[in-house]
Amino acid sequence: MNVTRLTVAGLHASAAELADLLAAVVADGASVGFLAPLDPGTALAWWRERADAVAAGRLAVWLARDAGGRVAGTVSLALADKPNSRHRAEVVKLMVRRDGRGRGLGRRLLGTAEEAAAAAGITLLHLDTESDSPAELLYRSADWERAGAIPDYAADPAGVLRPTTLYYKRVGTG
What we know:
CATH architecture: 3-Layer(aba) Sandwich
Shape: globular
Strand order of the largest sheet: 1-2-3-4-5-7-6
């Protein structure tokens, strides 16, 4: 599996494939901020809107391709822009296609984001995920600490309000 960090040009070039991945994981029930069915045009527009944040250095996006060259997964780091929070970043949109799950890709993408954060001087990562989702197993097994849960935080793809669990992890040497 080839994992690469996207430039703005790479994001534009891969936007349609990323949109397809986003629509596929939402259709599979992943709670990543969208309701099902996700219109392909909406998914494409969402990815294209990330270009300004990538260009400004506020967002880092990695893309994983399988042996056949198909986009199999992605993860992003949202970097803080306030002076008092530049030591932290949020892991966002960790997504793996259904047929790629259970093979270590999610862990590899998460590790890539963690390593890049530490290399950039970031010492604290955080994320949220739907409570009781399969993603929680990944985060716990990767030594992320549970900070707590918030009830009725976001609607799942079917529109049902679900709780979210907050996690954090210290990285680097700060």
